[in-house]
Amino acid sequence: MGPMEKNRLEAFSDGVLAIIITIMVLELKVPHGIELSALRPLLPVFSSYILSFVYIGIYWNNHHHMLYTTRHVSGGILWANLHLLFWLSLFPFTTGWMGENHFAPTPTAIYGVVLLMAAVAYYILQRAIIARQGPQALLAKAIGRDWKGKLSPVLYFAAIPSAFLNPWISHGIYIFVALIWLIPDRRIERTLTDRH
Amino acid sequence: MGPMEKNRLEAFSDGVLAIIITIMVLELKVPHGIELSALRPLLPVFSSYILSFVYIGIYWNNHHHMLYTTRHVSGGILWANLHLLFWLSLFPFTTGWMGENHFAPTPTAIYGVVLLMAAVAYYILQRAIIARQGPQALLAKAIGRDWKGKLSPVLYFAAIPSAFLNPWISHGIYIFVALIWLIPDRRIERTLTDRH
Amino acid sequence: MGPMEKNRLEAFSDGVLAIIITIMVLELKVPHGIELSALRPLLPVFSSYILSFVYIGIYWNNHHHMLYTTRHVSGGILWANLHLLFWLSLFPFTTGWMGENHFAPTPTAIYGVVLLMAAVAYYILQRAIIARQGPQALLAKAIGRDWKGKLSPVLYFAAIPSAFLNPWISHGIYIFVALIWLIPDRRIERTLTDRH
Amino acid sequence: MGPMEKNRLEAFSDGVLAIIITIMVLELKVPHGIELSALRPLLPVFSSYILSFVYIGIYWNNHHHMLYTTRHVSGGILWANLHLLFWLSLFPFTTGWMGENHFAPTPTAIYGVVLLMAAVAYYILQRAIIARQGPQALLAKAIGRDWKGKLSPVLYFAAIPSAFLNPWISHGIYIFVALIWLIPDRRIERTLTDRH
């Protein structure tokens, strides 16, 4: 689908991600009390919000880098991108459900299922872009062995059953994965800088 | 209306479509239970959400291709575009009504009415662009016989009364039409590639 | 404020207008019944929604044309623009209040107050742009005598007290003003086309 | 992170700010009465909305100017920006809580906490940009002694405990700080104009 430019794909994705990240805050319902203690029941929702905010930030950041290496998008890339946005659009729901139930086992596991599906969707999108760029794919070089991209789904997969043992194990895994991504990814950066 | 650039029309449409696709997820109300069974009543809403997400994705995709062939927009094109966005903006409402009532006949029929009106609005927008491009219209060549664009409204039209016989017939039609659009449209692509 | 480019002003305004136009649809609450009659109580809300959708469309259209004539924006223009967006952001509120109360006198009058304030804010923004462009202002030539811009606030002003006589008079005025704006404004267009 | 362009950072920030500014209006719940008196209980929410609207407008304005001086963004700048957006995303919550409780002490103090944290986040973002631009940083020259940026957090810090003496002191401080920012900031402007 040669003529499709990536600009509008980026603009649309930015719009959806901006809305997702902001809509999550609507789960922070204004409390009825006027004391500081009225905020206490909101703490789990608030900490879930922080976690999901960081995750959407990571996705936005990586998405930006990934699309930077590509120029034209095919129909396959477009739908792989919508597939990713679909799973990310469920973040406000799973964030709210996990937070409002104080990290109960099932909501915590379902939160991990959506994280896992988003990671898989991201991987598919990455493969679709590399497939289009051909064997000399700039993105393929940039991501290299892609250990973060391969480790994350494995960890999410482990976090899902762990929630039924102890939800805090899952929660620890979610935070750990977020942290390994927060460390700036110098791979794509370096490859691209070399090119310039 | 010579001076109007299409960029802002695209940006505004992207914004509206991004909000529509994301706002629909708000109908997925966070359940009160903490068991997996608490998600069961949400399944019809969730499957309606998937269907509408795919439809908005298709509209965004086709809209993108259609505007790619044009450069300047007239006042008529602008209002034809707003008319299309109006019908698409009703998707969250009809999706929620159909999903929350487990595909009852009337909500399923009304869902089809909005699909039909959006298809008609899309057709009007397409004619407005072709009218402006003149007899050698690039878009006219690109869409060719436009069998998908002509078949879809007919099928929606059939799906509306069918909902009162059996809503699943209508639902099957809605899924079928989505699938014929999901197959990437190589017509516009080919015509434009030839040009380059 | 020489360096400020208008692109980001447009992008921000487009975002706000896209959200306003889409958020209004949230007032169309999904009904509990599954019969067609369940939609009947929504008809006033729905017709208010159409009216406001058209108004936001008109503002977006005119805003686009107005900014087309300018290149750099001053701090004054920026705040005049935010002032306009402020009044437009109240549309979802007044639309919902008027619609849910079946066009009762006070909500209908308040709807007119917000229309009036938005028209005044638009006029201020227009003057700020002309002031910056200087005596040879392209926009000043383009709008000419600006009879629509001057007539609209007068009509809104008349519609506000009329609501207490009969809300339908006000409603008729609101529709009438929308119609005179829907007729494409060939003035700016013509002036700009001459320039090219 | 050389290759990252600032355009998408701006677009994403614009999207988030546009949504925040518009979502706040959803706290203005449509009243049930149809008399003008039905609006009276909404007055505190409405005046909180105006205050927060102005603050988001100021942040958008300053953010625009700040990014104007930079070209490429590093990973650190990106996360400093997301950190700022995080605190701004809490505005709808604190605005609603303060407004619905008629400026009770605790909600008024918490409103100040979020203002303070946003100011700190803005300062961090500013330092991150200057650090990247190096000793000759254009932004460093542009902001000069940055007395507004240094005074604001001090005033917010004073406003937080004051809320427990009398919330109106805090409210007065919030309005005062907004006013000193509303006065157009000619520093960056002048520095940049000199460059041209």
What does this molecule look like?
Four copies of one chain form a homotetramer. The first copy, chain A, is mainly alpha-helical and 196 residues long. Chain A has helices spanning 6-23, 43-68, 75-89, 91-100, 105-133, 138-143, 147-165, 167-182, 186-195. Chain A is globular and about 60 Å long. Chain C binds chain D through residues 1-5, 8, 11-12, 15-16, 18-20, 23, 26-27, 74-76, 78-79, 82, 85-86, 89-90, 92-93, 96-97, 100-101, 104-107, 110, and chain D through 10-11, 14-15, 17-19, 21-23, 25-26, 28, 30-31, 34-36, 38-39, 50, 53, 57, 60-61, 64-65, 68, 182, 184-186, 188-189, 192-193, 196.
- H/E element string of chain A? HHHHHHHHH
Name the helicity range of chain A.
Answer: over 70%
Query: What's the β-strand tally of chain A?
Result: 0
Radius of gyration of chain A: 18 Å
Which chains have the largest interface?
Answer: A-B, 37 and 37 residues
Uncertain segments of chain A of ≥5 residues (pLDDT<50)? Answer: none
Largest sheet of chain A: none
Into which percentage range does the β-strand content of chain A fall? under 5%
Principal-axes shape call of chain A:
globular
The tally of helices of chain A reads 9
| Quaternary state of the chains | homotetramer
